[in-house]
Specification:
Elements (H helix, E strand, L loop, with lengths): L20 E5 L5 E6 L10 E2 L2 E7 L4 E3 L4 E8 L5 E11 L5 E9 L2 E4 L2 E2 L3 E2 L10 E5 L2 E4 L2 E7 L5 E5 L8 E3 L4 E10 L3 E12 L2
Parallel strand pairs: 2-3
Antiparallel strand pairs: 1-2, 4-11, 4-18, 5-18, 6-12, 6-17, 7-15, 7-16, 7-18, 8-14, 8-17, 9-13, 10-12
Length: about 200
């Protein structure tokens, strides 16, 4: 058995009935539920997810002109459950008037998907590939359903999801397009970067 005090060792936690749900007693003698994602729906407490984490990133400082937008298109596959998590945008602007927004749309219509974006596996030793694809600069003919419309702060990194106080994620539909749009409605060009993290269920 692994030594729980040694963080270099792996440890498996199982219940007697192999449901992968375990009650954990904290220092304050309160009980918290520790559970893997597949069986934790609707339960309070910490969640240990099984699967693979991937991310998309600008990888460079980008500029979007005043009154224009920068789009990233994500298309889910037909097999795995994809969780959209931890969206962050870093914006640099001066005393510009107007707003900078992030928007997430479900099921947009595109006449062209754009340029293929590199998807990175968080586990750099893993050869597992994602069950979704991503593109930059799609040609959008209809936006679909808006799921998020978020006002982005200037001059510091904005964690669109989760917030500082709330756990957040969206489980995406299979075989569906999602548009992540950075919109500059200010009177100047905005320099920005982005990081979008997606989690792929292993089950």
């Amino acid at each position: 058995m692994a030594d729980l005090t040694d963080r270099t060792q792996n440890v498996n936690i199982c219940s007697d009935d192999d449901t992968k749900k375990v009650d954990v007693i904290t220092d304050s003698n309160t009980v918290n539920r520790l559970a893997v994602d597949s069986v934790s729906s609707g339960e309070a407490g910490d969640v240990v997810q099984q699967g693979n984490a991937f991310y998309l990133t600008a990888g460079a400082l980008l500029t979007v002109a005043s009154g224009t937008n920068f789009d990233v298109l994500v298309i889910t596959g037909t097999t795995k459950e994809i969780h959209l998590k931890d969206l962050s945008v870093n914006v640099l602007k001066n005393a510009a008037s107007g707003t900078t927004q992030f928007r997430l749309y479900e099921a947009p219509t595109t006449s062209a998907n754009g340029s293929a974006a590199t998807i990175y596996n968080n586990n750099r030793r893993s050869a597992i590939t994602p069950d979704f694809t991503a593109f930059v600069g799609p040609t959008v003919t209809a936006l679909g359903t808006v799921l998020i419309n978020y006002l982005v702060h200037s001059d510091w990194e904005t964690y669109i999801a989760p917030s500082y106080t709330n756990k957040w994620e969206i489980i995406l539909k299979t075989n569906t397009k999602y548009l992540l749009r950075f919109f500059n409605n200010t009177n100047q060009g905005n320099d920005f970067t982005y990081l979008y993290w997606l989690f792929q269920d292993a089950l």
